[in-house]
Amino acid sequence: MPTNPVLVVHGGAWDIPDAMVEAHLAGVRNAAAAGWRALERGGSALDAVEEAIVIMEDDETFDAGRGSFLNRDGKVQLDAFIMDGSTLRGGGVGCVERLRNPVRAARKILSDSPHVYFVAEGAERFAAEHGIALCRNEDLVIPREVARLRQYQAQASADGNSNTDGNDLFAPAHDMLSHDTVGAVALDRNGNIAASTSTGGTLNKAPGRLGDSSLIGCGCYADNQSAAASTTGWGEPIMKLVLAKWAADRVASGSLPEWVAKEAMNYLKQRLNGHGGIILLDAQGRYGIAHNTPRMAWALRSTQKQEAGIQRNS
Ligand code: ASP
């Protein structure tokens, strides 16, 4: 008997200002609509998460694709991962600078390569060899982010701290920052689940710094026997806890995704004073949406429901 599809997306977890709420909600709604169209066409969960992520990578509201945060050198450097819960195949790219939609390259790695990861120029070369057009890094940079980086670096040097890149020693600085990474989890008609996460990482990161988002089991995971998960937030604590896999394992042990998502956020806070958000979905269509930040943009589609929000914590 066919399964009823479900799709959940997020567009980052932080103290999203009131003025940015509408853009975030519109972005996650559009992404959910694109992923849902794929599922309605009979597409796989993988297709659905890929299509949802592409919409958010193309939307400058989010820290993914064009419009992402800039690294210390003023460049966009992107990480993405996609995983198929039915085969455990995954594809990831890290530190790519010339791909508009890193998730497309990640999907190609998943489907056409025996490997799981390609990074930097090697990833770009793999993408080009597989028919994905490369762009210039400048095509991914927008004036808003140039101004944001300048302001951040000026503030950091005024504070006498010129090296605030992604290091836990500077946790208070990160608490102030935005986290607009995007993610999606889906269940298709055949009962398969998939997950994907895509990011520009953290503002002013050191060139070459890889966050949690593209790391298997940290920012993203999918296994039909446990759950599909995508996380967002300050990446270093999330990767130290291998948080997506931590959450999926608890679902496999019989806990409900709704409860596990909240527990994952408690664990992140209590163990490493980390902050962020998570979406979690199992192969029965049970899901959890949780964050320990003031807000997280999310949207949900199922045969019964079509919802989006920015505050919910269950
Ligand atoms: N987790 C991402 C990173 O640290 C950032 C985010 O979620 O916004 O690269």
- Domain tally: 1
Could you give a short account of the major beta sheet? 8 strands, mixed
| Largest sheet, spatial ordering of strands | 4-3-2-6-5-1-11-12
Note poorly predicted spans. Answer: 166-176
Count of helical regions = 9
Count of strand segments? 12
Supply the CATH class.
Alpha Beta
Structure description:
The structure is a single chain. By secondary structure, the chain is an alpha+beta fold. Helix content is 35%, strand content 23%. The protein has 9 helices and 12 strands. The strands form 2 sheets. An 8-stranded mixed beta sheet has the order 4-3-2-6-5-1-11-12. It has a 4-stranded antiparallel beta sheet with strand order 7-8-9-10, with helices on one face. Strand 3 (90-96), helix 3 (102-112) and strand 4 (117-119) form a beta-alpha-beta unit. Bound molecules: aspartic acid. Aspartic acid is lined by residues 12, 63, 179-181, 199, 201-202, 211-213, 219, 232-233, 235.
